[in-house]
């Protein structure tokens, strides 16, 4: 008995449809370091990555898309953490899936924490480095080097449970750096960090790219990616929608109001100060902070920072929603 023809909402149908339309996205500098061909991955009947083919060279590449776009799933397929339903990923021509030699050339910073909370930061990084096959003494040396790179040497003796969100992010980065991988993947690395921690991580990622590493960073916030690189890939619903220079994408996004969320001491005072500016379009309050809609996002971010310093209003959070990106994605899809 023959199998029924695939319907339009099944994984088989999606793969068949994508096979005829897949194009290779090329990002980064120089030779191709990591490549994927016709990658697809499903969670049951829900598609996470849909027929993506991509070549990634050296430098920093931003993977930009709203929450649920498929960014994390794509990163896990590229790093061999998930076996794609179709397609494959190669690093230097070698297949990544189930290949220990390829894994040793990759570093991964996950969005979600997965720590042994009672371990010190130093012990955590050293232990994971030993799992890469290094001797005890070599692992300790490499761990110290990585911890110093993320400016945590003075806090490395403390248990991770005592770390702030920013410190936890940095110790995750240290474990990804310690074995000196060729390619690094960062999944939403700035989530929950304060402005100082955000700047530290952005500077580190840029330096890694400048030194010739291949660095792929996912985010749903445009200005975060823009601070690291001008080379981006836009992804939504598991598919690549656009790629190339971020300034071209920025022009489209700037046509839409940009929404920023602020938490600080005396939020109504800071909101009142912002209301005096013409580019402030709307203000709305939450229990702990407020949203500001602006037509000049770059100016608004710098203004919020300077006003908080000038009026001694400590900032607790400064983030962007992905509403502006969603508008661009709707435009691209249409």
Automatic annotation (TrEMBL):
Pfam assignment, any one: ABC_tran
Recorded family membership: Belongs to the ABC transporter superfamily.
Descriptive protein name: ABC transporter ATP-binding protein
Keyword terms of this UniProt record: ATP-binding, Nucleotide-binding, Transport
Alphabetical list of PROSITE patterns matching this protein: ABC_TRANSPORTER_1, ABC_TRANSPORTER_2
CDD domains: ABC_DR_subfamily_A
Region (Disordered): 1-20
InterPro entries in the record: AAA+_ATPase, ABC_transporter-like_ATP-bd, ABC_transporter-like_CS, P-loop_NTPase
Molecular-function GO term, any one: ATP hydrolysis activity
ABC transporter domain residues: 34-262
């Amino acid at each position: 008995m023959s199998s029924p023809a695939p319907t339009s909402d099944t994984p088989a149908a999606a793969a068949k449809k994508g096979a005829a339309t897949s194009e290779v996205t090329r990002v980064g500098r120089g030779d191709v370091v990591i490549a994927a061909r016709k990658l697809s991955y499903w969670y049951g009947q829900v598609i996470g990555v849909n027929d993506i083919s991509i070549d990634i060279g050296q430098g920093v590449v931003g993977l930009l898309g709203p929450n649920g776009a498929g960014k994390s799933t794509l990163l896990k397929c590229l790093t061999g953490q998930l076996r794609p339903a179709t397609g494959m990923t190669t690093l230097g021509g070698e297949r990544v899936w189930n290949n220990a030699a390829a894994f040793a050339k990759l570093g991964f910073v996950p969005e979600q924490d997965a720590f042994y909370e009672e371990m010190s930061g130093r012990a955590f990084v050293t232990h994971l480095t030993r799992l890469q096959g290094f001797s005890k003494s070599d692992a300790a040396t490499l761990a110290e080097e990585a911890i110093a790179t993320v400016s945590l040497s003075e806090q490395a003796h403390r248990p991770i449970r005592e770390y702030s969100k920013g410190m936890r992010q940095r110790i995750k980065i240290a474990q990804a750096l310690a074995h000196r991988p060729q390619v690094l993947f960062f999944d939403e690395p700035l989530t929950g960090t304060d402005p100082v921690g955000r700047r530290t991580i952005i500077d580190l990622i840029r330096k890694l790219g400048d030194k010739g590493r291949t660095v792929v960073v996912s985010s749903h916030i445009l200005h975060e990616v823009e601070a690291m690189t001008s080379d981006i890939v836009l992804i939504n619903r598991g598919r690549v929608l656009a790629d190339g220079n971020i300034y071209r994408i920025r022009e489209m996004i700037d046509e839409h109001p940009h929404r920023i969320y602020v938490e600080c001491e005396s939020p109504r005072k800071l909101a009142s100060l912002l209301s005096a500016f013409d580019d402030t379009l709307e203000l709305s309050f939450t229990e702990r902070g407020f949203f500001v809609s602006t037509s000049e996002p770059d100016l608004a971010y710098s203004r919020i920072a300077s006003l908080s310093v000038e009026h001694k209003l400590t900032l607790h959070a400064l983030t962007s929603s992905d509403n502006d990106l969603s508008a661009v994605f709707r435009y691209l899809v249409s």
